[in-house]
């Protein structure tokens, strides 16, 4: 069983930056494909970014491409989401997710964290 814990959410002004972290335990992190999703109030959960188990393959939603960067440190069992040029529409609870097997840009992940709140003020 894989446990995921997100951190790094905060209140930030438009144009600011944040780095989210997702610490994993209980599994073989280097074999996990990982993803970030977010859910804003009254909206459905949406894909943000994903990264293959083997570093090098990343995927982004069009809405964050060029502003967000997903990365992982297999030695630390941790995934990151660097968010720059934040906009009010980025306000949401951000969730990390994991699965053994190929990366997905849909919600087909087996393990989920509890979420961390990101609020971008205008």
Structural features, described:
Helices cover 0% and strands 51% of the residues. The chain has 122 residues and is an all-beta fold. Strands 2, 4, 5, 6, 9, 10 and 11 form a seven-stranded mixed sheet that branches. A four-stranded antiparallel sheet has the order 1-3-8-7, with no helix packed on it. Strand 4 and strand 5 form a beta hairpin. The termini are far apart.
Rg calculated over all Cα atoms: 13 Å
How far apart the termini lie comes to 40 Å
Contiguous low-pLDDT stretches (5 residues minimum) are none
What portion of residues is helical? under 10%
The secondary-structure class comes to: mainly beta
Secondary-structure element series: EEEEEEEEEEE
As a percent range, the share of strand residues is over 45%
Average predicted confidence as pLDDT: 96
Quickly count the helices.
0
Strand element count: 11
- Largest beta-sheet details: 7 strands, mixed
Task: Based on Cα principal axes, name the global outline.
Answer: globular
Task: Write a brief caption for the model.
By secondary structure, the chain is mainly beta. It has no helices and eleven strands. Helix content is 0%, strand content 51%.
Topology (elements, then pairings):
Blueprint: E1 3-7, E2 11-13, E3 18-25, E4 32-39, E5 46-51, E6 58-60, E7 68-73, E8 78-83, E9 92-100, E10 111-112, E11 116-121
Parallel strand pairs: 2-11
Antiparallel strand pairs: 1-3, 3-8, 4-5, 4-9, 5-6, 7-8, 9-10, 9-11
List keywords for this structure.
122 residues, 7-stranded mixed β-sheet, 4-stranded antiparallel β-sheet, 51% strand, globular
């Amino acid at each position: 069983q894989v446990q995921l814990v997100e951190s790094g959410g905060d209140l930030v002004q438009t144009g600011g930056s944040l780095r989210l972290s997702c610490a994993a335990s209980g599994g073989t992190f280097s074999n996990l494909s990982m993803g970030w999703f977010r859910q804003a109030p009254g909206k459905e959960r949406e894909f943000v970014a994903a990264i293959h188990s083997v570093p090098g393959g990343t995927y982004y939603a069009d809405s964050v491409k060029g502003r967000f960067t997903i990365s992982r440190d297999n030695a630390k069992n941790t995934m990151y989401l660097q968010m720059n040029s934040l906009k009010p529409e980025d306000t949401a609870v951000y969730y990390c997710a994991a699965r053994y097997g190929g990366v997905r840009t849909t919600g087909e992940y087996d393990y989920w964290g509890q979420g961390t709140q990101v609020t971008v003020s205008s």
